[in-house]
Amino acid sequence: MTKLVIVTGTTGSGKTTTCKEFVAQADDLWLHFGVDTMLGTLVPRKFVDGGARSGESLHMAPDDPADPEGPAHMDFGRQGGRLIDTYHRMVRAAVENGERVILDHVATTDPPILPNLVAHFRDLPSLFVALKPPQDILGTRIAGRIAEVEKVLGPEQAARNNEGTRRASAFVAREIFRHDCFDMVLDTGALSPAEVARAILDRVENGPPGDALARLA
Fold first, then answer.
1. Contact at 8 Å (CB) between 157 and 50?
2. I want to staple 76 with a disulfide (CB 3.0 to 4.6 A). Which of 50, 80, 200, 215 is the partner?
3. How many angstroms separate the CA atoms of 65 and 73, rounded?
4. Residue 34 — φ and ψ, nearest 5°?
């Protein structure tokens, strides 16, 4: 029985919406853990991207420091790696305590979020799902999520956060899809969130079981 579903994709791919649809459709109780919950709620705002000390944690950094408005990449900072490790340990503890968890995540190869994820979850009955809409629709979706980000970070920090995310979107997508070892890859440009959630739930209920994390180990 699948105990853990990991949904990865760049910002704007529909991870959070898909996970919300999934837990709404599922008959069983599933916990929804999200990287936005970790960085937007548990971690103080000043350490979240766009905050005064965000450079110490997981943040978007310009490729060229002399061009702060140019292309950007994701960086761990001094504390980001430990925070991601803590996040994964929390999720594993929930699964080991008998919960079923759906996790929306950004499983990049660099910075090494994916290797840490595999190390913690490779032996769990899991399903590793990638959401991959066309790149050209992501900008519109990122702009459209600012109202939700404002609820957590406030308007000024949300604007900085969204701008950093927009500039790093192509980088994050590249680092997520540097490999093709997923149990499912779904086009959220062609499918509605409800359809994507239904497809994942069908796989959970009817199989076959996932083995992507074991193959990545």
1. yes
2. 80
3. 11
4. -135, 145
What pLDDT, in 10s, does the model give residues 114-158? Answer: 999 999 999 999 999 999 988 777 666 655 565 666 566 677 666
Tokens of 2: 């699948």
Q: Which amino acid is at 176?
A: I
∠ CA 182-186-188, rounded to 5°: 140
- At which residue do the structure tokens 């490999």 appear? 179
Structural domain boundaries in the chain? 4-216
Rg of the chain, C-alpha, whole Å: 16
The tokens of 52 are what?
Answer: 């005064």
Instruction: Find residue 6's DSSP bridge partners.
Output: 103, 128
Q: What is the C-alpha separation between 70 and 63, in angstroms, rounded? A: 7
Measured distance CA(3)–CA(20) in Å, rounded: 17
The pLDDT tens digits of the residues spanning 88-97 come to: 999 999 999 9
Which token pair is 210? 């996932």
Q: What superfamily in CATH does domain 4-216 come from?
A: P-loop containing nucleotide triphosphate hydrolases (3.40.50.300)
User: Which residues have CB under 8 Å from 79's CB, separation 6+?
Assistant: 47, 56, 57
One-letter amino acid at 77 equals G
> What pTM does this model have?
0.86
